[in-house]
Amino acid sequence: MSLKTSPGWLKSLKAAFKDGVNKDASAAYFSFANTNSEGKPSVRTVVFRGFICENYPKETDADQMLKTDALLSFTTHLKSNKIAELKKNNNFEISWWFPSVREQYRISGQAHLIVSPEYVKDYPHPTKLVHCETSNPIDWEFQRSKFFSFMSPSLKASFLWPPPGKPVSKDSVFHYEMDESNAEAAKSNFVLVVLEPLKVDVVSLAHRDHRRHLYSLSTGPGISDENAASDWTFQELNP
Ligand SMILES: Cc1cc2nc3c(=O)[nH]c(=O)nc-3n(C[C@H](O)[C@H](O)[C@H](O)COP(=O)(O)O)c2cc1C
Q: How far apart are the first and last CA of the chain?
Protein backbone atom coordinates (compact mmCIF):
# COMPACT_ATOMS: atom_id res chain seq x y z
CA MET A 1 0.00 0.00 0.00
CA SER A 2 1.46 3.35 -0.89
CA LEU A 3 0.27 6.86 -0.33
CA LYS A 4 0.91 9.26 -3.19
CA THR A 5 0.62 12.60 -1.48
CA SER A 6 0.65 14.15 1.97
CA PRO A 7 -2.95 14.83 3.08
CA GLY A 8 -4.08 18.43 2.58
CA TRP A 9 -5.88 18.62 5.94
CA LEU A 10 -2.75 17.81 7.95
CA LYS A 11 -1.05 21.18 7.54
CA SER A 12 -4.13 23.10 8.72
CA LEU A 13 -4.72 20.68 11.63
CA LYS A 14 -1.13 21.14 12.80
CA ALA A 15 -1.45 24.92 12.54
CA ALA A 16 -4.78 24.88 14.46
CA PHE A 17 -3.30 22.65 17.17
CA LYS A 18 -0.16 24.75 17.55
CA ASP A 19 -2.10 27.99 17.78
CA GLY A 20 -4.69 26.39 20.10
CA VAL A 21 -2.33 24.92 22.71
CA ASN A 22 -0.25 28.09 22.76
CA LYS A 23 -3.37 29.91 23.99
CA ASP A 24 -5.02 27.18 26.07
CA ALA A 25 -3.73 23.69 26.90
CA SER A 26 -7.24 22.26 26.65
CA ALA A 27 -6.99 22.54 22.85
CA ALA A 28 -5.22 19.16 23.17
CA TYR A 29 -8.49 17.46 24.23
CA PHE A 30 -10.72 15.81 21.67
CA SER A 31 -13.81 13.61 21.87
CA PHE A 32 -13.15 10.04 20.81
CA ALA A 33 -16.15 7.98 19.72
CA ASN A 34 -16.49 4.33 18.84
CA THR A 35 -19.19 1.69 19.23
CA ASN A 36 -19.57 -0.31 22.43
CA SER A 37 -20.12 -4.06 22.73
CA GLU A 38 -23.86 -3.55 22.11
CA GLY A 39 -23.17 -1.57 18.93
CA LYS A 40 -24.21 1.68 20.64
CA PRO A 41 -22.23 4.95 20.57
CA SER A 42 -19.50 5.42 23.18
CA VAL A 43 -17.72 8.76 23.48
CA ARG A 44 -15.25 10.29 25.91
CA THR A 45 -12.64 13.05 26.18
CA VAL A 46 -8.99 12.10 25.67
CA VAL A 47 -5.71 13.99 25.34
CA PHE A 48 -3.93 14.17 21.99
CA ARG A 49 -0.39 12.87 22.56
CA GLY A 50 1.17 13.62 19.20
CA PHE A 51 1.61 12.60 15.62
CA ILE A 52 3.19 9.18 15.41
CA CYS A 53 6.66 9.00 13.95
CA GLU A 54 6.94 12.74 13.53
CA ASN A 55 10.56 12.48 14.63
CA TYR A 56 11.13 8.98 13.35
CA PRO A 57 14.07 9.67 11.05
CA LYS A 58 15.96 11.43 13.84
CA GLU A 59 15.51 8.60 16.28
CA THR A 60 15.90 5.40 14.36
CA ASP A 61 16.97 3.93 11.10
CA ALA A 62 15.86 6.20 8.25
CA ASP A 63 14.59 3.06 6.50
CA GLN A 64 11.71 3.11 8.93
CA MET A 65 10.65 6.61 7.99
CA LEU A 66 6.96 6.96 7.28
CA LYS A 67 5.76 8.64 4.13
CA THR A 68 3.51 10.82 6.23
CA ASP A 69 3.01 11.57 9.89
CA ALA A 70 -0.78 11.69 9.54
CA LEU A 71 -1.24 9.15 12.34
CA LEU A 72 -2.65 10.63 15.55
CA SER A 73 -2.42 9.19 19.04
CA PHE A 74 -3.75 9.12 22.56
CA THR A 75 -2.91 6.85 25.47
CA THR A 76 -5.10 4.78 27.73
CA HIS A 77 -5.32 2.02 30.34
CA LEU A 78 -5.35 -1.56 29.02
CA LYS A 79 -8.30 -2.45 31.26
CA SER A 80 -10.50 0.46 30.16
CA ASN A 81 -13.75 -0.43 28.38
CA LYS A 82 -12.68 1.17 25.12
CA ILE A 83 -9.91 -1.41 24.65
CA ALA A 84 -12.28 -4.39 24.53
CA GLU A 85 -14.68 -2.36 22.39
CA LEU A 86 -11.98 -1.43 19.87
CA LYS A 87 -10.79 -5.01 19.69
CA LYS A 88 -14.26 -5.94 18.43
CA ASN A 89 -14.70 -2.94 16.15
CA ASN A 90 -11.85 -0.50 15.59
CA ASN A 91 -13.81 2.12 13.63
CA PHE A 92 -13.65 5.49 15.33
CA GLU A 93 -14.58 9.13 14.90
CA ILE A 94 -13.10 12.07 16.75
CA SER A 95 -14.44 15.59 17.04
CA TRP A 96 -11.88 18.29 17.76
CA TRP A 97 -12.76 21.98 18.10
CA PHE A 98 -10.14 24.71 18.03
CA PRO A 99 -11.73 27.95 19.33
CA SER A 100 -8.68 30.09 18.53
CA VAL A 101 -8.98 29.46 14.77
CA ARG A 102 -12.70 28.57 14.83
CA GLU A 103 -12.20 25.22 13.11
CA GLN A 104 -13.75 21.81 13.79
CA TYR A 105 -12.08 18.58 12.64
CA ARG A 106 -14.14 15.40 12.49
CA ILE A 107 -11.74 12.59 11.72
CA SER A 108 -12.83 9.01 11.18
CA GLY A 109 -10.89 5.87 10.42
CA GLN A 110 -9.38 2.89 12.18
CA ALA A 111 -7.82 2.76 15.64
CA HIS A 112 -4.85 0.47 16.31
CA LEU A 113 -3.91 -0.69 19.81
CA ILE A 114 -0.23 -0.72 20.67
CA VAL A 115 -0.08 -2.84 23.81
CA SER A 116 2.72 -4.21 25.94
CA PRO A 117 4.55 -7.23 24.38
CA GLU A 118 2.93 -9.60 26.91
CA TYR A 119 -0.54 -8.79 25.48
CA VAL A 120 0.33 -8.68 21.77
CA LYS A 121 -1.08 -12.17 21.25
CA ASP A 122 -4.53 -10.88 22.27
CA TYR A 123 -4.15 -7.46 20.64
CA PRO A 124 -1.83 -7.84 17.62
CA HIS A 125 0.07 -4.75 16.51
CA PRO A 126 -0.89 -3.44 13.06
CA THR A 127 1.25 -4.72 10.23
CA LYS A 128 -0.18 -2.63 7.41
CA LEU A 129 -1.26 0.95 7.63
CA VAL A 130 -2.45 3.01 4.70
CA HIS A 131 -0.32 5.89 5.92
CA CYS A 132 2.90 3.97 6.26
CA GLU A 133 5.42 2.94 3.76
CA THR A 134 8.43 1.37 5.40
CA SER A 135 10.97 -1.11 4.20
CA ASN A 136 11.18 -2.64 7.68
CA PRO A 137 8.27 -3.34 10.03
CA ILE A 138 7.60 -0.46 12.41
CA ASP A 139 9.00 -1.04 15.86
CA TRP A 140 5.76 -0.42 17.75
CA GLU A 141 7.26 -1.28 21.14
CA PHE A 142 9.85 1.43 20.56
CA GLN A 143 7.00 3.89 19.90
CA ARG A 144 5.02 2.77 22.97
CA SER A 145 8.09 3.06 25.22
CA LYS A 146 8.85 6.51 23.86
CA PHE A 147 5.33 7.76 24.63
CA PHE A 148 5.44 6.19 28.13
CA SER A 149 8.72 7.97 28.84
CA PHE A 150 7.03 11.32 28.05
CA MET A 151 4.46 10.81 30.86
CA SER A 152 4.84 12.59 34.20
CA PRO A 153 5.49 10.32 37.24
CA SER A 154 1.93 10.83 38.55
CA LEU A 155 0.43 10.02 35.15
CA LYS A 156 2.59 6.89 34.95
CA ALA A 157 1.31 5.90 38.40
CA SER A 158 -2.31 6.12 37.18
CA PHE A 159 -1.63 3.04 35.03
CA LEU A 160 -1.35 1.09 38.30
CA TRP A 161 -4.90 2.01 39.23
CA PRO A 162 -7.56 -0.71 39.26
CA PRO A 163 -9.61 -1.24 36.05
CA PRO A 164 -11.33 2.03 35.00
CA GLY A 165 -15.12 1.88 35.02
CA LYS A 166 -15.36 -0.98 37.56
CA PRO A 167 -16.95 -0.33 40.99
CA VAL A 168 -14.60 0.97 43.69
CA SER A 169 -13.96 -1.75 46.27
CA LYS A 170 -12.20 -1.80 49.63
CA ASP A 171 -9.17 -3.25 47.79
CA SER A 172 -9.00 -0.40 45.28
CA VAL A 173 -5.62 1.35 45.61
CA PHE A 174 -4.79 4.55 43.74
CA HIS A 175 -1.07 5.18 43.40
CA TYR A 176 0.19 8.72 42.88
CA GLU A 177 3.90 8.01 43.01
CA MET A 178 6.16 5.98 40.80
CA ASP A 179 9.34 4.21 41.76
CA GLU A 180 11.52 1.61 40.10
CA SER A 181 9.63 -1.22 41.82
CA ASN A 182 6.30 -0.50 40.14
CA ALA A 183 7.37 1.15 36.85
CA GLU A 184 7.18 -2.06 34.81
CA ALA A 185 3.72 -2.94 36.16
CA ALA A 186 2.46 0.52 35.18
CA LYS A 187 4.03 0.27 31.75
CA SER A 188 2.40 -3.09 31.08
CA ASN A 189 -1.05 -1.44 31.42
CA PHE A 190 -0.03 1.45 29.17
CA VAL A 191 -1.61 1.43 25.70
CA LEU A 192 -0.76 3.76 22.85
CA VAL A 193 -3.78 4.14 20.57
CA VAL A 194 -2.80 5.00 17.01
CA LEU A 195 -5.50 6.64 14.93
CA GLU A 196 -5.37 6.13 11.20
CA PRO A 197 -7.55 8.76 9.50
CA LEU A 198 -9.51 7.72 6.40
CA LYS A 199 -11.93 10.66 6.22
CA VAL A 200 -11.53 14.22 7.53
CA ASP A 201 -14.40 16.72 7.60
CA VAL A 202 -13.21 20.26 8.36
CA VAL A 203 -15.67 23.03 9.19
CA SER A 204 -14.36 26.57 9.44
CA LEU A 205 -16.43 29.24 11.14
CA ALA A 206 -13.69 31.83 10.67
CA HIS A 207 -15.57 33.55 7.83
CA ARG A 208 -19.11 34.84 7.59
CA ASP A 209 -19.80 32.24 4.90
CA HIS A 210 -18.82 29.15 6.86
CA ARG A 211 -16.67 26.71 4.90
CA ARG A 212 -16.68 22.92 4.90
CA HIS A 213 -14.14 20.63 3.26
CA LEU A 214 -14.23 16.85 3.09
CA TYR A 215 -11.02 14.89 2.56
CA SER A 216 -11.38 11.18 1.80
CA LEU A 217 -8.78 8.55 1.28
CA SER A 218 -9.47 6.76 -1.94
CA THR A 219 -7.63 3.69 -3.05
CA GLY A 220 -7.09 1.73 -6.20
CA PRO A 221 -8.30 -1.87 -6.25
CA GLY A 222 -9.09 -2.03 -2.53
CA ILE A 223 -7.84 -0.74 0.76
CA SER A 224 -6.50 -4.12 1.82
CA ASP A 225 -4.69 -4.69 -1.47
CA GLU A 226 -0.98 -4.44 -0.86
CA ASN A 227 -0.25 -2.89 -4.24
CA ALA A 228 -3.13 -0.43 -4.21
CA ALA A 229 -2.19 3.22 -4.60
CA SER A 230 -4.05 5.52 -2.21
CA ASP A 231 -4.59 9.20 -2.33
CA TRP A 232 -6.66 11.88 -0.66
CA THR A 233 -9.53 13.41 -2.58
CA PHE A 234 -10.95 16.75 -1.64
CA GLN A 235 -14.46 18.15 -1.95
CA GLU A 236 -16.02 21.42 -0.85
CA LEU A 237 -19.38 20.87 0.87
CA ASN A 238 -22.20 23.14 1.93
CA PRO A 239 -21.53 24.07 5.54
C1 LIG B 1 -9.97 16.40 30.19
C2 LIG B 1 -9.97 14.90 30.18
C3 LIG B 1 -8.92 14.23 29.59
C4 LIG B 1 -8.91 12.84 29.56
N5 LIG B 1 -7.87 12.20 28.92
C6 LIG B 1 -7.89 10.84 28.82
C7 LIG B 1 -6.89 10.16 28.06
O8 LIG B 1 -5.99 10.76 27.46
N9 LIG B 1 -6.98 8.81 28.00
C10 LIG B 1 -7.97 8.11 28.62
O11 LIG B 1 -7.99 6.88 28.52
N12 LIG B 1 -8.92 8.72 29.34
C13 LIG B 1 -8.92 10.08 29.45
N14 LIG B 1 -9.89 10.72 30.16
C15 LIG B 1 -10.95 9.91 30.81
C16 LIG B 1 -11.95 9.49 29.74
O17 LIG B 1 -12.76 10.58 29.35
C18 LIG B 1 -12.82 8.28 30.18
O19 LIG B 1 -13.54 8.61 31.36
C20 LIG B 1 -11.97 7.03 30.43
O21 LIG B 1 -10.98 6.88 29.43
C22 LIG B 1 -12.83 5.77 30.47
O23 LIG B 1 -13.46 5.61 29.23
P24 LIG B 1 -14.02 4.20 28.74
O25 LIG B 1 -14.75 3.60 29.93
O26 LIG B 1 -14.95 4.52 27.62
O27 LIG B 1 -12.87 3.34 28.31
C28 LIG B 1 -9.93 12.11 30.18
C29 LIG B 1 -11.01 12.80 30.78
C30 LIG B 1 -11.01 14.16 30.78
C31 LIG B 1 -12.18 14.87 31.44
A: 33
Candidate from 46, 94, 114 with most ligand 1 atoms within 8 A of CB, to mutate: 46
Q: Give pLDDT tens digits for 33-92.
A: 999 999 999 999 999 998 886 544 444 444 344 445 688 999 999 999 999 999 999 999
pTM score: 0.91
Residue 32: which residues within 8 A CB-CB, separation 6 or more? Answer: 43, 44, 45, 46, 74, 82, 92, 94
Taking the C-alpha atoms of residue 13 and residue 96, their distance in angstroms, rounded to an integer, is 10
Which residue among 24, 40, 45, 81 is best mutated to probe the pocket of ligand 1, counting the most ligand atoms within 8 A of its Cβ?
Answer: 45
Q: CA angle, 204 as apex, 200 and 210 as ends, to 5°?
A: 120
Confidence of residue 31 (pLDDT cuts 50, 70, 90): very high
CA distance 163 to 77: 8
